[in-house]
Amino acid sequence: MSITIYFAGTRNQKISRLKVRFWESIRAGILKNNTAQVIEPPSAAEEEDILPEEFVMVERTQPDGTVEQIIFSSGGNVDVYDLQDLCDKVGWPRRPLSKLAAALRNSYMVATLHSVSKSAGEEGNEQKKLIGMARATSDHAFNATIWDVLVDPSYQGQGLGKALIEKLVKSLLQRDIGNISLFADSQVVEFYRNLGFVPDPEGIKGMFWHPKY
Q1: In a domain, 210, yes or no
Q2: 213 a catalytic residue
Q3: Rounded to an integer, what distance in angstroms lies between the CA atom of residue 97 and that of residue 203?
Q4: What's the pLDDT tens digit per position in 82-98?
Q5: Which of 10, 15, 42, 87 stands the most exposed, by the fewest C-beta atoms within 10 Å?
């Protein structure tokens, strides 16, 4: 069952709460060992503007010396084949590539997480893979809906999904879009509730039309 849930709170409260939760979720969920280094948040002056489209969210050193960076981007640069592979990893049914490409192209915002690994002492030897994505459609004024939230199963449980959604919501709020909704399966409602979303606020019900066969 899919449930429509909505982001709650005033705009100032949202921004303040998200700013705290965003960085706390990274520190609490991703710092699994002392080889990880979280990049510090932008300064207060930088917070006045829309955040950069791309930045290093996490940097950590693997036991073999390989340096891995988790890079967040809201630039919307997604290879449709990489996205299909990510959908396969999480067990989603395959969708036509042409429709996936159209969905990305017509989205208001596409946020991604890429893992970039660099081997120690080897210049130019870099491996990059898509490990997370979420996108939003919008009327560019009042409303936005979040779709296709994915995190590679091998990277789940590290707080990356929370960080991805919080950063996407914060980016929408910075564009003065305050009515944010998404569709969630019943087993992940609590996950989104912890991020400030509420199901059916003030009696609002999400309704769906579908053809009768």
Answers
A1: no
A2: no
A3: 37
A4: 999 999 999 999 999 99
A5: 10
